[in-house]
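Researcher: Please generate the 3D structure of the following complex. Treat every line as part of one assembly.
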Amino acid sequence: MNALTLPDIAAQASRQALPLDWVGMCGIAVPLWLAGQRLNARADAGVSLDDGAARGIHMSRLYLALELLEHEPLSPALLRRVLQHFLDSHQGLSASASLRLHTEALLKRPALVSPLAGWKSYPASIAARLDSRGFHVELSVAVSYSSTCPCSAALARQLIQQRFSQDFSSRPLEHSAVLAWLGSPQGIVATPHSQRSSAQLQIRLNPAATDLPLEALIDRAEATLGTALQTAVKRADEQAFALANGQNPMFCEDAARRLHLALREQPEVHGLNLRVVHAESLHAHDAVAESRWNWEGA
Ligand SMILES: Nc1nc2c(ncn2[C@@H]2O[C@H](COP(=O)(O)OP(=O)(O)OP(=O)(O)O)[C@@H](O)[C@H]2O)c(=O)[nH]1
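Model: Done. Output below.
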């Protein structure tokens, strides 16, 4: 039997004529180049099946088009070429194509003070679509940070004030005595709670963007929040982290507003959709805020 005699079920007519919105493959292992690294990724690749009478799409053609990802850094232009391949190989069948890549960038992050550094992983995904409305790309990444509750900080300060008032009600206010008190457990009789938090950032790239600014997006988000989770930490770094948290107390609403305003002004951002989750240590549930700008379906 040779290739010409192999049955081709996909080429048959469907018994139930009906177009399908998306047909493809999910979870294909692919390598890609991003943020200066070769990364493992999982691809979801597909097209619409607009010809309702056709039995199926040609999955192998989509799979083989993904080979393009191996050879050059991931960019909007490369994604567009892959999607154009999907459509060219499905002429008469499909008018829209999409590709979603799930990966994890591993970036080296410096300590706050000491000359140390360590690795931090950032789950990320890139989604591209080509259809009659044009081509667009979305970039998503999760950034983890610490958030100190501003309400808890104010309540703790009040208790410290009360304790100070008690302890110094009958003592003269001498500099050395106050300094010693501040350095004692009485000087911090209450501490605010803080929580490990995460921001899920999704941006739609400006159509003119030539790069996928993953690292720039992460850097911008971490600088905006001021309390990114750390990697290598010595005591000097921990002290700097305590200061950063004290200077940046945040409700989830504060974090969402900060991120929205900082990301929206980036020239490569055409739209954004973000969700921040503060995994409360006061409650057994999370505090969550979402914000969108120029986001379809919002
Ligand atoms: N359309 C479709 N194909 C599937 C599915 N599950 C597995 N396949 C297989 O995917 C394989 C590749 O399909 P095609 O791309 O049509 O393969 P081909 O006919 O050899 O390639 P072309 O000559 O380029 O059409 C076939 O062996 C299908 O059986 C499915 O649910 N739908």
